[in-house]
Design goal:
82% helix; mainly alpha
Length: 138
């Protein structure tokens, strides 16, 4: 009898743990991936933009900002790959990047590069908020 109670309790605990564990897995279009592909892609885009700004216009601030924000996104994506629910570093980085690039876009009304980066950051902010809301409801 005691063994049956322990087996039931173990099944309940393992069922609860699998649903929590499922939320900690990175998924892209239903496929399980070992890291946060979209965040890594954003990091490469930001670093590439900084390099292009430096090579094209000789802008050292573009290079530094691209490298700093790209590296911060890579660090956040490392934490997200360890636990898919840990998107706080990515959310903070994208909010700051969105604010800076939206401000630059509103000053110049030039879509490249400020409007593009602000748009991508805004989309990623919505994605990270969605991940946080989805995981709070479970």
């Amino acid at each position: 009898m005691a063994d049956e109670v322990n087996d039931d309790a173990h099944q309940k605990n393992s069922g609860a743990n699998t649903s929590v564990a499922d939320n900690k897995i990175n998924r892209l279009f239903g496929l399980t991936v070992p890291f946060d592909v979209l965040s890594v892609l954003l990091g490469f885009i930001v670093i590439s933009g900084g390099l292009v700004g430096y090579l094209k216009a000789g802008s050292i601030p573009s290079l530094v900002a691209g490298l700093v924000f790209g590296i911060l996104i890579f660090i956040g994506s490392y934490f997200s790959s360890r636990d898919a629910t840990n998107v706080y570093p990515l959310l903070v980085t994208c909010v700051i990047l969105f604010g800076l690039m939206a401000w630059r876009f509103l000053k110049s009304y030039k879509f490249m590069p400020a409007g593009l980066v602000a748009s991508l950051s805004g989309i990623m902010i919505l994605r990270y908020i969605y991940i946080l809301v989805l995981n709070r409801s479970t």
